[in-house]
Design brief:
mainly alpha, Helix Hairpins
Length: 140
């Protein structure tokens, strides 16, 4: 009986050693995987400011190009319509309607040619700003 007991203990120990070894090997591979992930995240974090700076530079170049091409920027369009840059579609529409009522050339049809030209120019500017914002903000 003693001999059987020793054999059972030895078998149990060998299973434990094998499973303990595989457990350690799995734990080591998991640790390596975690270290690799941490290193990858840290490298992305280090690269993030440079990426943001590149995107900001590209946006500034696009805005400058739009201004050179006679196109409007969102900030300019909002300034023309006298609304904040974060204004929603309803606010933009109501500001457009109010301004176009005030500056429509038909309202000054009986006045001098100079006044009519200024009104026509201002109403074109208002229409262009409104059209630009409609396209930029995807509303109708």
């Amino acid at each position: 009986m003693n001999q059987l007991w020793r054999r059972a203990v030895n078998i149990a120990k060998s299973y434990m050693n094998d499973s303990d070894f595989s457990f350690r090997r799995e734990a080591e591979s998991e640790d390596e995987e975690l270290r690799r992930i941490i290193d990858e995240l840290n490298s992305e974090k280090e690269q993030e400011p440079a990426r943001e700076q590149r995107q900001s530079s590209q946006q500034n170049q696009q805005r400058a190009g739009a201004a050179r091409n006679g196109e409007m920027t969102i900030a300019e369009a909002c300034r023309v319509l006298q609304v904040p840059a974060h204004a929603d579609a309803d606010t933009i529409k109501s500001a457009y309607k109010k301004l176009i009522r005030e500056h429509h050339p038909d309202r000054v049809a009986t006045q001098s040619e100079d006044v009519r030209e200024r009104a026509a120019k201002r109403s074109r500017e208002i229409n262009n700003a409104y059209s630009f914002l409609k396209k930029a903000r995807n509303f109708s």
